[in-house]
Structure formats: structure tokens, C-alpha cells
Amino acid sequence: MFCPECKSMMKVRKRGKKNVPYCPRCSDLVELSPEEIFEPVLDPGLGAHPDIAFFPYPKVRIGQDEFIKDVAKSIAQKKHLLAYAPTGIGKTVAALAPAVEASIKMGKVVCFLTSKQSQHHIAVETLRQMKTTSGEKIKVVDLISKQAMCPAEIAEEYPAAFRMLCFTSQVTKSCHYFTNEDKSIVNFVHNNIMHVEELKTLATRRKVCPHKVALQAAAEANVIVCDYNHIFDPVVRPNLEEAFGRPIEDFIVIVDEAHNLPDRIRGYYSMSLTTNMVEEALHEVNDKHLASILKGMKKDLSALLERVDEGKEVLTEAAPLLEALNKRMDHSIIDQFDLETMMEKLRDTGMRRMADGRQSVAFDVYEFLAGYKQELKGLLRIISRKDGMMLNYRLLDPSVVATPVFDGFHSSIVMSGTLYPTLVYADILGIPVKKRMLKSYRSPFPEENRPVFVSEEVTTLYNQRSDAMYKKIASNISGACDLIPGNVAVFFQSYGMLKNIMQHIQVSKETIFESRDSTKAEKRGLITKLVRLKNMNGGIMLAVMGGSLSEGIDYKDNLLDAVIVVGVPFAPPSLEQDQLIYYYDMKFGPGKGRDYGYNYPAMNRVLQSIGRCIRSETDRAAVILLDKRFGYPNYKRYFPEDVKLRTGMNLKSSLRKFYGN
Questions:
Q1: Whether residue 280 sits in one domain with residue 308
Q2: 380/433 same-domain check
Q3: What domain range is 349 assigned to?
Q4: Which CATH number goes with the domain that contains 289?
Q5: Do 593 and 465 reside in the same domain of the chain?
Q6: What is the pLDDT of residues 451-492, one digit of tens each?
Q7: Are 127 and 71 members of one domain?
Q8: Phi, psi at residue 226, to the nearest 5°?
Q9: What pTM was computed for the model?
Q10: Residue of higher predicted confidence among 660 and 395
Q11: Starting at the edge strand that comes first in sequence, how are the strands of the sheet with 313-316 ordered?
Q12: What are the C-alpha distances in Å from 598 to residues 2, 194, 234, 395, 497?
């Protein structure tokens, strides 16, 4: 058999119990039904729930049924459900099943937001299962950034250059991917639930823009799986309704791993400026008058930075820098040359360079000034000489951005296995009391499968740190590893502490570790090594709390036999941290600032680390907290009820008993 499109010889491969033909050269679509291409081969033992629409399993887990009812209730009442849903409860399907039902019945669109691209996979696979078991047509689009979906060479450029090159190629119609049309692909996407890489491969073979296809399909989709950026990034958000073809009030938004959302929003409104950046921008401009202004700006910025002593930070306002710039432009020989004109010229300079495929610091300076002069409540401006000399702006209060966005949605489900306490996150995101539903659900895991031990011998309290204490912590780690028959992950509060303690650890297991400079590929390599070591004597992986190895990795199939947490990962002292605590004290009341801005964020990183070892009801693993402070009453209160801390025991004896069973 020959491919009717490219005339190549067709090949055959297994799909379930059938042999099906495919063309290895041009497209898997040829001669195949959509289901044979993209629908997974499902376990024949699975079936839909008899009473819960779109729920693709015959039974619900403990706590899952309550979660499903609350999601449906929040949608019906147009409210925002904030859910602490421990790992293993099955929160993805519990949120999606009632949301998809509402989408089909009410004509709404479900936006499933993730913080990482790797988390798209779980949502898409869940939706496939729902479609197969329900027999209903569910239109799904898996969407990531335009750059990540681009098949052209410009996808390799840095982001700002890519945006410019992509825009230029669309306007000049020089991108054949964008100018080509193929409506059959949009129909195909509607009829098949595809991972974004599958959509990208398909569209590229058909010589059309994958991102454009995804947006066209999104206009009639029931579910759009996308990133936080699409809803909360100020660069992307203004075009949201136009891009998705829906009014914002039609959105039912599910925010997965929502404990990340406040910091992600803060990150969208944070940037730094140095004199070196102004100098580099100066070399990019051809306009003599703009160059003269930039020279003056460098002097003004340098004078501003030098007011601060080495190693110190101080607060500032927008006025000192902006007034100095305006004063220089008031004396300009060119009429009507003001700050807006200066910024436009910087932007245009940057865009011209990026259109040529070159990086532009002039554009970076433009972006800094655009953000720096904003009148946002909670926007902090700092002159810092701690790590070099720089002028920073940082957003303290994510609710300034989040509140109006959430107000526009029909409803939302804000969920995470560590969204605890939900009241704190509702306050931080600025979700009004009358519009919020705060819920916590029981963990389905047997408590005896994940004992949490607190060592009362050691601490990382700053005034008690010493080489002797580091050796004692290392001894605790080494002794525990000798008793644990498998892989152990040790999460430290910082890279510095990891380095100080690692040199004293003595174990028979192979040791692998994360460094500050580890790439994504290197981190994936660590997980691959753990899989190999699992079938041997086991290994010990050293990493940090708050990093991707303690949050973004799913250690499935009981890959970890134990997790050890070293220290309490409080944010290091800084002016920004002090101001965050002060700001929340003023906003929520005395004493709340330290909890909202300091204590709970640290404990969230601990909870994330604890959650790595148990991923299913049958997994068994011990958790060891190496800091006696965890056993103090004023620290225990930061843990959810389902995390039972065991203190006052002999650690080695307890480990022998647990693993002996």
C-alpha cells in the first residue's frame, strides 16, 4: 500500500490488538481513524461511574466524592473554591469531571492552568479517559507558549527577539506556516484529544502554524489546558478574550498546583536595572539625542546607587530617577522630547535589532521603565548593593493583579496538595469573602504508610549552626540511610547547607546531588539514576526545598522509600522580605504579616518535599524531619491535620520497626 499523499510505502504498527498502516514520511493521519492515532489503549477493567457524569472510574476515593460535589456547587453558585486536596485524592479528575459537564450544559469553557509544561500531560490523559468512558465528544486544546510551539528556526531565538520576529513575519506574510490554512486540522483537533507535541507534529507536517491552529480550535473548545501565563501574565492577558474567542465571564478556571500562583504573579512584575545595562543600550542606539539622554541617565542611576553603602539595601520611590530624567529632557534642544518619547525610541531601537535576530538591552531598559513607573499598590522599589549595584522593583501584593482577574471568571477551582491553609491563600490572592469557598479534604493514604518522624537532636537554627552540628546532621542522615532499604531523597533548606553537610555524609548507597547550576536535563538524569538504583541497593539524592526536584517531579511507583527534610526553609533576610511582612501586617492585622509572608511559605516548601514520597495508596515511605523546631507547638500548627508528627521516639528503632514490617 502506498501513501496517497507522498506515494511512499506505508508501514504497519500495532494499535491495541490491531495492525494499522501509517506513513512514516509525511503524516500519521493517512488511512487511519482519529481514534487509532491518538486515543490510548485503555484498561478494559475501567468504566464510568454510574452516578457521576464524566467520571471515568467505577469508584471514587476517600474525600474525592466530596471534592466533586464542591466543584459542582462552586460552578453553580459562581464562586471560587480554594481546595487543600492532599496527594492521592485524585484532584485533577475530581475538578475536571463536573467542570466538563458544566461546560457542555452551560456553554462555558474550562481553562485548566498548570505551572509547568510537564503537568499538562496528566490533565490531557485524564480528559482522554473521560471522553472514552463517557462516549461524549469533549473538545480539548493543549496550549503552551507560541515560541515553544513554533516549528520555524526563529523558535531558537531568545523570547523578546522571537516575539518581534514572529510579529514581523506575520505582517510581511513571510511565514508560510502562518499564512497557510487547513481547516481540516481544526476539525481533527476537535475530534481528538491531543497532547501539544502531537498537535505540533501534525500541524508542522501540514505546513501550518501549530499555535494558530490551537487558538482556532480553542474558540469552540470545552477545555483549554494552558499555563498560568495565559491568564495572569500582563503581556499575554490583554489579548485573552480575542485569542480564545470567548468573553472572560464564560471561563471556568481550574488552577492546579495553586500554591505557586502568588509568587508567579509577583514574578511578572519584578525587574532590575544596572548601569551596565544602560551602557549597553547606549551602544545600540543611533539617535544622537537619545544617546545623550542615556548618558545622563547612566550618571543619574549611578548617583542614586552610590547613595547606599556596600552590602546594603534601601527603599526608594519612582520619583528620584524619573524626575532626574525629566529634568534632562526639559533642557533638551528638541521640543516635546519626554519620558514617553524616550521609551518609544528605546522600544523601536530594540524591535529593529530583534527583527535582525540580535539581542537588545535597549528593549530591556524600555521594559524596566514601563514597569518601574507603574502606580500599583504594593509595588516596591529598592536600591540594592548586596549583589552588585542595581535598582529593583518588586510586586509585594499579588491580589492587585489577581482580584480583578478572578472577578471576571464565571467561577474557579484553586487547588493544590499543599494549599494550606486555604484562608491564607484566599486572602493573599484577594478573593472576596462572599465569593470564596474554603475546603480541606482528607488524605486517602493510610497514616501508617507514611510516618513522619521529628529528630530532636539537631537544628539548623542560625545561632546554633557549626561544623559540629553539621556533622551531627550528617550522622543522622547516614544512620537513617543504613536502615532504609531503597532510595532516599534528602531536601535541604539551601544549597549552602547542602554543601556544608554533604561532605560529612558517609553511606554505602550511591550519592547523587543537585547543584545550583544543574540544568533541566541534568535533573532528569538524576531521576533516571534513581530508577536504576531502585533495583539495586538504592541511592541517596541530595537536593533543595523549593527546587524542581522537591516540587515538580512525580516520583511514581514508590521510587522514593524515604524523604529526609533538613532545616526550616525560611526566606533569607532581605529588605523585600521585611517589607512583605510589614505590608501584610498593615493589610491583615498585626501578627498576620509574619505568617502570611514568612512562616506559611516556608512550611509549604516542607509540605511539598514531604509529598514526594507517597503518590498512591499502596506506596510506603518514611519522612524524617531533621530539626527539633518542627516538634515545637508553635511550628506544629503550620501542618495540616493529616500530617501527624511523631516526636519523643528513638529514630533508629522506629525506622527498623517500619521497614521491618
A1: yes
A2: no
A3: 275-388
A4: 1.10.275.40
A5: yes
A6: 999 999 999 999 999 999 999 999 999 999 999 999 999 999
A7: yes
A8: -150, -175
A9: 0.88
A10: 395
A11: 271-273, 390-395, 379-384, 313-316
A12: 65, 41, 26, 16, 19
